[in-house]
């Protein structure tokens, strides 16, 4: 059995300064609160958005956004 991996977005709330670039680059997964800070779901990043999520992580000017790999459980191979 192999373990499949999924990704989810995480925000370092202390490092984030609320510029909102992540929401501009990835509006499908990132919303902004009333002060301009990101709100990200606790769900996995869909495969079709993974490249866009990586781009948003790389573009964060304060490195507050990151992708976290999480094991999804065993799968049969």
Number of domains: 1
* Mean pLDDT rating: 89
Report the end-to-end length measured between terminal Cα atoms: 6 Å
Class based on secondary structure composition and strand pairing: alpha+beta
Order of helices and strands: EHEEHE
CATH structural fold name: Alpha-Beta Plaits
Helix fraction bin? 10-25%
Based on CA atoms alone, the radius of gyration comes out at: 13 Å
In the CATH hierarchy, what is the class? Alpha Beta
What are the low-pLDDT stretches, counting only 5+ consecutive residues below 50?
none
- Strand arrangement within the widest β-sheet reads 1-4
Count of beta strands: 4
CATH architecture: 2-Layer Sandwich
Number of helices: 2
Major sheet characteristics = 2 strands, antiparallel
Query: What does the overall shape look like?
Result: globular
Beta-strand content estimate? 25-35%
Give a description of the structure.
By secondary structure, the protein is of the alpha+beta class. The protein has one domain (2-75): 2-Layer Sandwich (Alpha-Beta Plaits), CATH 3.30.70. The chain is 19% helix and 32% strand. It has 2 helices and 4 strands; from the N terminus they run βαββαβ. The protein has helices at 21-25, 50-59; strands spanning 2-11, 31-32, 38-39, 65-75. A two-stranded antiparallel sheet has the order 1-4. A hairpin with a 5-residue loop joins strand 2 (31-32) and strand 3. The longest helix has 10 residues, at 50-59.
What keyword list fits this structure?
single chain; 77 residues; alpha+beta; Alpha-Beta Plaits; two-stranded antiparallel sheet; 19% helix; globular
